[in-house]
Design a protein that fits this description.
Structural class: alpha/beta
Radius of gyration: 16 Å
Distance between the termini: 20 Å
Strand content: 25-35%
CATH superfamily: Class I glutamine amidotransferase (GATase) domain
Shape: globular
Number of helices: 5
Helix content: 10-25%
Number of domains: 1
CATH architecture: 3-Layer(aba) Sandwich
């Protein structure tokens, strides 16, 4: 069973509709206790999101999701982050300047940071060619580079280059997706990306063929 985290932000309806189009039944996760490893009814979870890094992180803290999401990931249970759901996996972001001299910390399950695109109009809104690596499970069966829908002003820079499984270009080449064991996340919105996005969701939810 797949759960979609409902923490008060994110494109929840769009994600649910996209999952329905590929024949996958999903349910909203409305309480953090539903994600406690070993007790959760869910086999896989999706963490969609949009908005500001610090605001989203504080929402996770205030709703009690921060620690259970970490525990889920550290237990190596299937996880898909979308948009800010990718960025919050990292340690800090230029979008969230230090408060009281201390940086706003993300979930920090991946080493690296989030930076503002240099020298271009932001946010990037629209379709962008995305090039996957041959090792990616998410992009299996997509036949190489595809166009996906983006809306973001910041991009992730993983410390471990092997975590990155796809790139795109917007003034700089940037990481568009990460995979590490059961952890997956994408900067673009697969639920708004037509057939390639649905195939990617199918690969994650059902498995590639």
């Amino acid at each position: 069973m797949i759960g979609v985290i409902n923490y008060g932000a994110g494109n929840l309806g769009s994600v649910m509709n996209a999952l329905g189009r590929i024949g996958v039944k999903a349910y909203f996760v409305n309480e953090p206790d539903e994600l406690v490893p070993g007790k959760s009814p869910y086999e896989k979870i999706i963490f969609p999101g949009d908005g500001h890094f610090a605001t989203a992180m504080k929402a996770l803290q205030n709703t009690g999701y921060e620690n259970v999401i970490r525990e889920w990931i550290y237990a190596d249970k299937p996880f898909l982050g979308i948009c800010i759901g990718l960025q919050l996996l990292f340690e800090c972001s230029e979008e969230a300047p230090p408060e009281a001299g201390r940086p706003v910390q993300g979930l920090s399950v991946l080493k690296g940071n989030v930076r503002l695109f240099p020298g271009v109009k932001v946010p990037q809104i629209g379709w962008n060619r995305t090039v996957p690596s041959s090792k990616s499970r998410l992009f299996a069966g997509l036949g190489g580079a595809q166009f996906f829908y983006y809306i973001h002003s910041y991009y992730v820079i993983p410390d471990n280059a092997e975590d990155s499984v796809a790139t795109a270009d917007y003034s700089v080449e940037f990481c568009a997706a990460v995979e590490r064991s059961a952890l997956c996340a994408v900067q673009f919105h697969p639920e708004k990306s037509g057939a390639p996005g649905l195939k990617l969701l199918e690969n994650w939810a059902i498995g590639s063929s």
